[in-house]
Each structure stands twice: as structure tokens, then as C-alpha cells.
UniProtKB/TrEMBL annotation, chain A:
Catalytic activity from the UniProt record: ATP + protein L-histidine = ADP + protein N-phospho-L-histidine
This protein's name: histidine kinase
Signal peptide: none
Record-linked InterPro entries: 2C_system_His_kinase, CHASE_dom, CHASE_sf, CheY-like_superfamily, HATPase_C_sf, HATPase_dom, His_kinase_dom, HisK_dim/P_dom
UniProt enzyme class: transferase
GO cellular component: endoplasmic reticulum membrane; nucleus
Keyword Methyltransferase (UniProt): no
UniProtKB/TrEMBL annotation, chain B:
Location(s), subcellular: Cytoplasm, Cytosol; Nucleus
UniProt keyword annotations, A-Z: Cytokinin signaling pathway, Cytoplasm, Nucleus, Phosphoprotein, Two-component regulatory system
Pfam families: Hpt (PF01627)
Domain free text: Histidine-containing phosphotransfer domain (HPt) contains an active histidine that mediates the phosphotransfer.
Record-level GO cellular component terms: cytosol; nucleus
GO biological process per UniProt: cytokinin-activated signaling pathway; phosphorelay signal transduction system
InterPro entries per the UniProt record, alphabetical: AHP1-5/YPD1 (IPR045871), HPT_dom_sf (IPR036641), Sig_transdc_His_kin_Hpt_dom (IPR008207)
Name of the protein: Histidine-containing phosphotransfer protein
Domain HPt: 39-144
Length: 983, 152
């Protein structure tokens, strides 16, 4: 079955693996594509940065253009304004000349007046280098004119003018242009056209730019016609020509004047300004600025200029002197964006890489987990198989017809075997403890035999090492307590096991006292120490008053305290007796290597040992103490220790248990070995031992057998006592039945001399049954044994550790009282009988033979047994209402197994319980709730099966084939709980 | 009287040898303990049940293993039954063979199974003859007017 299960689990593991494989395809980033994504991201960030740069650059350009536009327009407007101001003034001047020169007679203006006036009003014409007035002289009037003025009309080249139809000699001029006086303006090509156009239109006209006389600057000449008579409205061209008296002209020195104008404006250095005459659109004449172009050619601004002459067109062109400076802001911003983008990318890359790594790890972990789980299942299976395989041969250990000593050995073997199975279950429980799922039992038990069993586990080892191993349970500890014997045993086993492991000489001493009692005594002692101060000098000799004489770590456990604990019989705590709770203090004292101070803090940490050499020398995993701590805490106690390196350790723990009424003893989990023979009741023994603690232990064990004990400290004293008895033969003083002597006392020289006398003394008392001489020894050699036989210990040598049952077995042999030994066993049977008698029980098993055997076993205890051969049949029989008191159910059955059948039964019962009860059913006196106890019958002994039983609604399990003890336990536990529930 | 004690000694020796050679184990002792005045034929009854069942099971097993396609599940169920009943009466060696059989069954090892079946038949016939001898001795003791010595 084990193998089959394993196969099934294997399948599970494989399926899980497949699932994992399927899951793996859904990972959202693939490892291989990551570098590609990174490169793409990089390129993408480049593009983004470039776009940002472009946008910012375009913005800059736009702003630059706006600035240029506004600057250019401003300049154009100013130039135009100033120009028109000048033109207006020249216009006013023309009217002035016509008014004062022609309308007045005689003329109010001469050259002098004109020069002075124009000089003083020059500020009104900021753009003009000078103005002059030229009179219209027709050829017929030339001579008269020349005569009148006293000079001849000359051409521009300053030569006497040739004959023409008309002349326009300058008669008045501003001083700045006085050199043109008497020059005929009609002789210059530009001026002549100007004059003709001016008088035809009656408006100010401009020449195209040319180099001016005098300054040789580029300039234009403005000409205004002056009419000698008033013109009719809307005069014709003819009329204008007729009325023309002369021409007022002014030269704009555009170059210097524009220079001057621009100089006043801000940003002058940054831009280049050109002014063009664009009357002839194919040939732009430059008025200002350099003909060849310089500055930033990429950007320019054209502003149209209107100088008031519709015939002429001008424009101003502005551009930046320097190329647009590279925009550091844009570059920096773009670069920053790029860097940020890269960083973000890097972060995402890092995260993605991390995620991938984590995912990979996760998958790996999952795989490992699946493998670990498979291994765990395999482990459990292995344990199950092994525990089963161990169990089978263990049954063979059960004996029937052995001598008492053999029986003790056999019982030891059996106890060890059971402990082994327990251990296997404990290993399985370890996980439970760690998961916090462990629940403690609360059953009545006697801790004394449990401690004996623990000791017997280690007896071989301790004998081998020559250690004193002893247990002592105070009389005040109740015989039966409620608690979890298994866990209690586990903790003690662990502590003792540790002690045995780490102790090479001396002793290991387990004590159990009532916690309150122990505390009271220790407190009292501490007080007396403080008061008297005499207690300190106790260890003056090399011997300590402990079990073996070796020093122990916690000197509170030495004889000085111990004697109070033992002797203080009258000590009674009133509350203790009445209250249900009892707190025990269990100490395990050893004289081993102790725990180094540095490691003391970590003692209860799992897998911690003092150092690595510890595990090398002594083995072990170091988990025991941590489990013990958990268990002790679950039991409502605390675990502590006192340890001195090279002196020893004393572990102590408390356990909060409940008192148990004596009449409930029957319910107790009881091992056959628990029952001590009562044949020794009333016998008398003398224990000869110099060490009081050890003597107390011996006395404790003997007392358990009902033997009266007297302790003496030396053989000499024994002899004295015996001889006194022998001589006086008083009636109330009885001859002792046995004398138990410690080996070291006998071996030591002090009493060596009395050995012979001991021998002699023995046959003296022949009339009575002579006392049996018994030697107590931890270890003994063959020679010593022979020697002992010779000196009188012929009867037996009892090997320590002492245990009541072992002691009983030995004494039985010695006293030949073994016949009554069987008594104890019947107790369980009779109890079982009382429990099962008259009960109606259903046995469900598909195997006829099994069924018959189970039925036979149950019938033997008086039960009324009915059988069913399948789960279905059981279901039919258990249809409500029925009158079965319990059901034993096989688990592995064809068609419907025990689990399934139980589930169905429970469901059926639940349904019935939910239905409102009618009067009839209550009258039958049935329990309000339907719940037939179902016990599984199984060959599996591991707890896992047990858990499964409980899960599907079973109440317990018994192992198959039936075993009385096992049956007893299972039946007892559920009938007991039933008894409790029924008042 | 002589005959009785001789028979009794023979009975004890024979029983001891049965335990010693591993034909029977503790469970058989338990079984004997269950037999008392109210149920004097208990052991014989159980054992004869065991014989009947076992012969059926052996036949079934032989049939199952001769099939063209062997239904190992069925075989395993039979062996499980066999193991259960043999362990119930304490026929230790039969039980052990059953345990081995189940492992072979798990491994679907046909040759092994057939060999195991032969062994099972052998062990069964051995334990059957031993038990029959035992019962015969018991009958003889009773017929001679003696009491069957308790092994428990």
C-alpha cells in the first residue's frame, strides 16, 4: 500500500511540474527581448530629445523674428515720421516764400533773411542738410534777371548757363548749401525732372538717391513748387505750370541722417539696416547701407517707407548682424530630457531585469518546492513503512513464559520498541509543533512508571559510562495526574538523553516535586542561609552531598535542600489539596561538561549546539531542546537551566497538570509494566548507603513496592542493629527481609573489615528466614561479582538505574514470590469487560476472517457484536434509528472504503439531528444527538492515518490485528468521553 | 495418563516449533486467548474460515494471473484480502509472502507474481497441514481425557 501511495504522489509531483511548465509561458517580459527593448528605448529617447530641441529652437527663432520685426518697423516708422516732419516744414517754407516773396511787394525776403530764417529753423528739419529756393526764369526774362541780381546763371558745373527755355537759378539758400547759389537747378538731370514733376503735381517730390554735391553722401533732393498766384481748386497741370514762380528744394543727407537717427535707438549694434529706393522694381537703388550684403542672411524684415511722394517707393530692410546664437537653453533642456529618459530607461531595465531574475528564482524555488514536497511525501511514506515494519517484529518481542529477569529484559525491549514507534510519531509531530498545530492530550496517567521507562531507555548507556542514573518522585506528587503522558515523556527523555550524552562521570538525577513545595523549601533554606550563614561551609570536604558525590551546577538540589523536600512529610499546602491544578517541578541534574557561558543564550534555539565540535564529539541535531521548550510551554510551564562549564547542568521545567480522582484510575492509559506486583507489601528492607540522596532514591523505589525501608549509613551500623535484634528478639522489631548495600560502600576500605563478619552473621539467624543480601551497583566487573558472591551477596546484584518494576522482578527472583505476578494484567481486561459488556457493536470488514476475529475479541469482553461485510451494508444497518453503541470500521474495503462510509453515516446523522424532534423519539430516551462512535481498524500506525480518520468523522482507531492494550486504549478513551457527556 | 502427558508434551513441542519456525506469531496466541468456555470452537472456526477464504483467493489469484491482460488492481485486492486474513490468524509466513507479493504487484512484475503465487501456495499448504496437525493433536488430547495445555 505504501508503494502504491508513493506512486500516486509521484504523479502529483509530475502534474505539478507540468502546471509549472505551462505557467512559465505567461511571463510578461522575455529575457531575450530585453536588450532590443533597451536599444529601442534609447533611439526613442534620442528622437524625443531632438524634437524638444527643434521646438525650442523654433520658438527662439520666432522670438528673434518678432524682435527684428518690431525693431525694423520702429525704425521705419521713425524715419518716416522724421522725414514727413521735414517735408512738412519744407512745405511751410515754400508757403513762406510764396507769401513773403511774391504776395508782398516789395519782397520781404532776401538772401540774408532766408539764410537766417532757415538757419534758425534747421532743427525743424533734422534730416535735411540744407534748403534753397530757385526762381523760375524763362529765357526771355534771363537778361533782366541777371542784371537785377548782378550775376549770371550758371550750370551745375559752375559754368555760365547755355541758352535754354527755362532756368531755375537758386536765389536764396541756407548757409550750409550756399555754394549752390546762382546755379541753375534745371541743369542737373535729377533736379530738372524733379522740378518738372513738382510743379505738375503741386506736391513734394523726391529724386532718386545720388551723391550730393559737397558732402558726397548719398542723398535725395526734395522739391516743392512755389506758386505766385492763388490756384483755383482742382487746378489742371497747365494751370499749375503757369502759376509756378519757383521751387523750394532741400537735400536729405540720408546716409548721415539715418545714421544719426539709428544711433539714438536701442539695439543699434545688433541689426543691419538698409534703405532702398525701389521705384524701379528691377533696379533697387541703395539709399543707406552697404550695397554688398552682410549679416545674417537667413532672416530679414522688409518695412515699406512712405516719404510722401507717391511716385517714389522706398523700403527698409533689416537683418541681424550676427547669426542666431546657438540656444544653450534648448540644448541643455534636450540633453537633460535625454539623460532623464536614459535614467528612467535604465531604472525600468533594472526593474525588469530584477523581475526576470526574481521570476526565474521563483520558478526555480517552485521547482525545488515541488521536489522538496515530493521528498517530504517520500519521507512520510518511508517513515510510515518503516514504522510499520518496525512494529511487526516488535510484536514478536511480547513474551509469555519467561523468568522474571527475562521478563524485565523483555519489557525493557518492548518499552524501547514502543518508544521507537513513539519516536517516529514524534518526528512526524515535529512539523506540527513548528506549525503550532500540536494539541496536547489530557488523559490520566501515572508519571512514575513513565520516568522509569525513560530511565530504562538510557540504562544501557549509563551503565556503560558508569554513571549514576536515578529518578525520584516526591510523595506529594499525586499518583495520577491529567495531562499528556507522551509529551511529558518526550521532554524528560530529551533532557535525560542530553544529560547522558554530555556526561562522562558522576550522575544524572531526575526529580519531580510539587512546584510550590519546592519553592517554599528553597525559599526557606535561602532565608536560613542568610540568617545563619552556616549553610555556606557545607562543602568543606572534597565530597559534595549530591547523588554521586560530584559537584552539580545547581547546589539547591544537594542534600541540604533535598532532605527538607523528602523529610518534610507534614508539609501540606491547603490550597494544593483542594484545587484541581497541580504544578510539578521536574529537574534533570547532571555532572557533565556543562554549557559554555557564550552558548547559554542559544540553548533553546533550534539546531544550535554549543559549538561545532560539540556535534562532532557528541552527535545530535540540537533540535531536541527547542522542541522540549515548545512542549513545556504548551503544557503551561517554563523551562530553565543552570549550567556551569565542567561542573554540569541542571535543567528544570514546570508542568501545569490537573489532579485526577482516584476512582478515575481505571480510565488511565495503562501499560502492563505499569502495574507493580503487590506481593512485597509489608516486607522490610534495610538500605545501607552513605550517600543520603542516593539512599532516598532507593527508598523511593522500594516504597513504591510497598516495602518498609530503613536507611543506615554504614555496614557497621547494620550489623549493630541486626545483632541487637538477634539478641533481644523483641516482638515489635521485625527481622529485615532484605538488606540492600551500595557497591561503593562495600568496596571502600572503611567497611572492608566487616565483610567477613557480615558473612558470619548471616547463618546465625537460621531460625528465621534470613535476610536476603542484595548489592546495588552501577557497574560491576566479573571479578568483583565473584568477590561479592563470596562475601555474602549470593542472592543477587541489582544493576542500576533502579526502577520499581525491575526491582520487583529481581526481588521476585530472590524471594521466589513470582507466582503472583500475573495479577496486574487482569485489571485492564476486567475494565474492558465492564466497558463493553452488553454494548451492541457493529464490526465492518470485508475480510471474513478479520471480521470473525474482531467479533470474537469483542465478544470476549461481553459485547453484542453484529457484522457487516461492506461499507454499504454498514450504512444500511446504521440507518436511523438504530441501537448500536459503536462501530468498528475497516478502512480499506472495495467499493466503499471506511472513510467514505463514515462520511455518509455522519451526513445521515447530521440530517437527522437537524430535523426537529417529534415527541416519540425523545420518549425513547435517546440522546438528543445521533452520533455513533466509529473506530477505524487499520494496519497503519502513523499519525497521518489517524488524522485522516478524525477528518472524516471517526472517533479513533485501533490497530489491526486486534491487540488487547490498543483496543483498551481506544475503547476507554471514547467510552470515557461518553460517560462524561452523560450525566 | 502416560498417553495424555506424552500427547501434551508433543503438543507443546509442536506448538513451540510452529512459533519458532515462524509459521505462527503472537496473533495466534491472541486468538487462542479469545477462546473460552462460551466459545470453545473459536480458533477452529476462524481457522476453517481462513482455509475456505484462502482456497478461494488462491484460485482467484491463479485465474487472475492467467488472463491475457492481467488486472493488477484485482490481484492486489486479492492479495490484500489474503494478507488481512493471514495476519488475523497469525500465519506469519503467509503474511510475509503476501507483503512481498503486493510489492511485486505494484511493480507489475508478472513473472515475480507467478513465482510468488507458487510460494504462497506452498506456504499456505504448509501452514494448513501444520494447523491441521495441531488440531488433530488437540482432539487426541481431548479424546484421551486430558486438557489442552495453554500456551498463553
Amino acid at each position: 500500500m505504501g508503494l502504491k501511495k508513493q506512486g500516486h504522489h509521484h504523479l502529483v509531483a509530475v502534474r505539478l511540474n507540468e502546471k509549472l511548465g505551462a505557467k512559465r509561458k505567461y511571463t510578461f517580459i522575455h529575457k531575450a527581448s530585453l536588450p532590443r527593448i533597451v536599444v529601442l528605448w534609447f533611439v526613442f529617447m534620442c528622437c524625443i530629445s531632438y524634437v524638444i530641441y527643434e521646438r525650442m529652437d523654433a520658438d527662439n527663432e520666432e522670438r528673434r523674428k518678432e524682435v527684428l520685426t518690431s525693431m525694423c518697423d520702429q525704425r521705419a516708422r521713425m524715419l518716416q515720421d522724421q522725414f514727413s516732419v521735414s517735408v512738412n516744414h519744407v512745405h511751410a517754407l515754400a508757403i513762406l516764400v510764396s507769401t513773403f516773396h511774391y504776395y508782398k511787394n516789395p519782397s520781404a525776403i532776401d538772401q540774408e533773411t532766408f539764410a537766417e530764417y532757415t538757419a534758425q529753423t534747421a532743427f525743424e528739419r533734422p534730416l535735411m542738410s540744407g534748403v534753397a529756393y530757385a526762381q523760375r526764369v524763362v529765357y526771355s526774362e534771363r537778361e533782366a534777371f541777371e542784371r537785377e541780381n548782378g550775376w549770371t546763371i550758371r550750370t551745375m558745373e559752375k559754368e555760365p548757363s547755355p541758352v535754354r527755355d527755362e532756368y531755375a537759378p537758386v536765389i536764396f539758400s541756407q548757409e550750409t548749401v550756399s555754394y549752390i547759389e546762382s546755379l541753375d537747378m534745371m541743369s542737373g538731370e535729377e533736379d530738372r525732372e524733379n522740378i518738372l514733376r513738382a510743379r505738375a503735381t503741386g506736391k513734394a517730390v523726391l529724386t532718386s538717391p545720388f551723391r550730393l554735391l559737397g558732402s558726397h553722401h548719398l542723398g535725395v533732393v526734395l522739391t516743392f513748387p512755389v506758386y505766385k498766384s492763388k490756384l483755383p481748386p482742382n487746378p489742371s497741370v497747365e494751370q499749375r505750370i503757369q502759376a509756378t514762380a519757383g521751387y523750394l528744394g532741400g537735400a536729405f543727407d540720408v546716409e548721415s541722417l539715418v545714421e544719426n537717427l539709428l544711433g539714438q535707438l536701442a539695439g543699434n549694434q545688433a541689426i543691419v539696416v538698409n534703405v532702398f529706393d525701389v521705384t524701379n522694381s528691377s533696379d533697387h537703388l541703395i539709399m543707406y547701407g552697404h550695397q554688398y550684403q552682410d549679416g545674417d542672411m537667413s532672416l530679414n524684415r522688409v518695412s515699406m517707407l512712405d516719404f510722401g511722394d507717391p511716385f517714389r517707393k522706398h523700403k527698409m530692410v533689416c537683418r541681424y548682424l550676427q547669426k542666431a546664437p546657438t540656444s544653450w537653453t534648448a540644448i541643455t533642456t534636450a540633453f537633460l530630457c535625454f539623460v532623464i529618459g536614459c535614467l528612467v530607461g535604465y531604472m525600468i531595465y533594472g526593474t525588469a531585469a530584477h523581475i526576470i531574475k526574481v521570476q526565474d528564482d521563483f520558478h526555480e524555488m517552485q521547482e525545488l518546492k515541488v521536489r522538496a514536497e515530493a521528498a517530504d511525501v517520500a519521507k512520510s511514506q518511508f517513515l510510515a513503512t518503516v514504522s510499520h515494519e518496525i512494529r511487526t517484529p516488535m510484536n514478536g518481542v511480547l513474551d509469555t513464559n519467561l523468568s522474571s529477569t527475562q521478563r524485565d529484559y523483555a519489557q525493557t525491549a518492548q518499552a524501547c520498541g514502543k518508544a521507537l514507534i513513539t519516536l517516529i510519531n514524534e518526528v512526524l509531530d515535529r512539523a506540527k509543533i513548528e506549525a503550532g498545530k500540536l494539541e496536547l492530550e489530557a488523559v490520566p496517567f501515572d508519571l512514575r512508571p513513565i520516568l522509569d521507562d525513560v530511565l530504562s531507555l538510557f540504562s544501557e548507556k549509563s551503565r556503560h559510562k558508569g554513571l549514576e542514573l536515578a529518578v525520584f518522585v516526591s510523595d506529594k506528587v499525586p499518583e495520577i495526574v491529567m495531562g499528556d503522558p507522551g509529551r511529558f515523556r518526550q521532554v524528560v527523555t530529551n533532557l535525560v538523553g542530553n544529560s547522558v550524552k554530555f556526561t562522562e562521570r558522576g550522575h544524572i538525577f531526575v526529580q519531580v516535586h510539587l512546584a510550590e513545595h519546592a519553592k517554599a523549601v528553597i525559599d526557606a533554606k535561602a532565608e536560613s542561609c542568610l540568617n545563619g550563614g552556616s549553610g555556606v561551609v557545607l562543602s568543606s570536604g572534597s565530597q559534595f552531598k549530591t547523588l554521586s558525590g560530584c559537584e552539580s551546577a545547581d547546589d539547591r538540589t544537594s542534600w541540604d535542600t533535598f532532605k527538607y523536600l523528602v523529610a518534610d512529610e507534614e508539609f501540606r499546602v491547603a490550597t494544593e489539596e483542594t484545587s484541581q491544578n497541580v504544578t510539578l517541578l521536574i529537574t534533570v541534574e547532571d555532572t557533565g561538561i556543562g554549557i559554555p557561558l557564550s552558548a547559554q543564550e542559544q540553548v533553546f534555539t533550534p539546531f544550535m549546539q554549543a559549538d561545532s565540535s560539540t556535534s562532532r564529539n557528541y552527535g545530535g541535531t540540537g533540535i531536541g531542546l527547542s522542541i522540549s521548550k515548545c512542549l513545556v510551554e504548551l503544557m503551561g510551564g517554563q523551562i530553565n537551566f543552570i549550567s556551569r562549564p565542567q561542573v554540569g547542568s541542571t535543567f528544570s521545567f514546570t508542568a501545569a497538570l490537573k489532579r485526577c480522582e482516584k476512582n478515575a484510575i481505571g480510565d488511565m492509559k495503562r501499560l502492563p509494566s505499569d502495574d507493580l506486583p503487590i506481593a512485597f507489601k509489608g516486607l522490610k528492607a534495610i538500605v545501607v548507603d552513605g550517600k543520603p540522596v542516593r539512599a532516598a532514591v532507593t527508598r523511593y523505589h522500594l516504597k513504591r513496592l510497598g516495602i518498609l525501608v530503613e536507611v543506615v549509613s554504614s555496614i557497621r551500623m547494620t550489623l549493630a542493629m541486626s545483632s541487637k535484634n538477634g539478641s533481644l528478639r523483641s516482638k515489635n522489631e521485625r527481622q529485615p527481609d532484605m538488606i540492600l548495600v551500595e557497591k561503593d560502600l562495600w568496596m571502600s576500605g572503611e567497611d572492608g573489615s566487616v565483610n567477613l563478619r557480615l558473612q558470619e552473621w548471616k547463618p546465625n539467624s537460621h531460625t528465621f528466614k534470613s535476610p536476603k543480601m542484595i548489592l546495588l551497583a552501577t557497574s560491576i566487573t566479573g571479578a568483583e561479582f565473584e568477590n561479592a558472591k563470596q562475601v555474602g551477596f549470593a542472592d543477587t546484584v541489582i544493576m542500576k538505574p533502579l526502577r520499581a518494576s525491575m526491582l520487583a522482578a529481581c526481588l521476585q527472583q530472590v524471594l521466589e514470590t513470582g507466582k503472583k505476578a500475573q495479577q496486574g494484567k487482569d485489571n485492564g481486561s476486567s475494565f474492558l469487560k465492564s466497558l463493553l459488556c452488553g454494548k451492541k457493536i457493529l464490526v465492518v470488514d470485508d475480510n471474513r476472517v478479520n471480521r470473525r476475529v474482531a467479533a470474537g475479541a469483542l465478544k470476549k469482553f461481553g459485547a453484542d457484536v453484529e457484522c457487516a461485510d461492506s461499507g454499504k451494508a454498514a450504512l444500511a444497518l446504521l440507518q436511523l434509528p438504530h441501537d448500536f453503541d459503536a462501530c468498528f470500521m475497516d478502512i480499506q474495503m472495495p467499493e466503499m472504503d471506511g472513510f467514505e462510509a463514515t462520511r455518509l453515516i455522519r451526513r445521515m446523522e447530521m440530517k437527522a439531528n437537524e430535523q426537529p424532534m417529534n415527541g416519540g423519539s425523545t420518549a425513547e430516551g435517546r440522546e438528543a444527538e445521533w452520533h455513533v462512535p466509529i473506530l477505524a481498524m487499520t494496519a497503519d500506525v502513523i499519525h497521518a492515518t489517524y488524522d485522516e480518520c478524525l477528518k472524516c468523522g471517526m472517533d479513533g482507531y485501533v490497530s489491526k490485528p486486534f491487540e488487547e492494550e490498543n483496543l483498551y486504549q481506544a475503547v476507554a478513551s471514547f467510552f470515557e468521553s461518553k460517560l462524561n457527556s452523560e450525566p | 495418563m502416560d498417553v495424555v502427558s506424552q500427547l501434551q508434551r508433543q503438543f507443546v513441542d509442536f506448538t513451540t516449533s510452529l512459533y519458532h519456525e515462524g509459521f505462527l506469531d503472537d496473533q495466534f496466541t491472541q486468538l487462542q486467548k479469545l477462546q473460552d468456555e462460551s466459545n470453545p470452537e473459536f480458533v477452529a472456526e476462524v481457522v476453517s474460515l481462513f482455509f475456505e477464504d484462502s482456497e478461494n483467493l488462491l484460485n482467484n489469484l491463479a485465474n487472475a494471473l492467467q488472463q491475457q491482460i492481467v488486472d493488477y488492481k484485482q490481484v492486489d485486492a486479492h492479495v490484500h484480502q489474503f494478507k488481512g486474513s493471514s495476519s488475523s490468524i497469525g500465519a506469519q509466513r503467509v503474511k510475509n509472502v503476501c507483503a512481498a507479493f503486493r510489492n511485486l504487484c505494484e511493480g507489475k512484475n508478472l513473472d515475480g507474481c507467478i513465482r510468488c503465487l507458487q510460494q504462497l501456495k506452498l506456504e499456505y499448504s504448509l501452514v494448513k497441514s501444520k494447523l491441521e496437525t495441531l488440531f488433530r493433536l488437540e482432539q487426541q488430547i481431548l479424546a484421551a481425557g486430558g486438557t489442552v495445555p495453554s500456551m498463553a
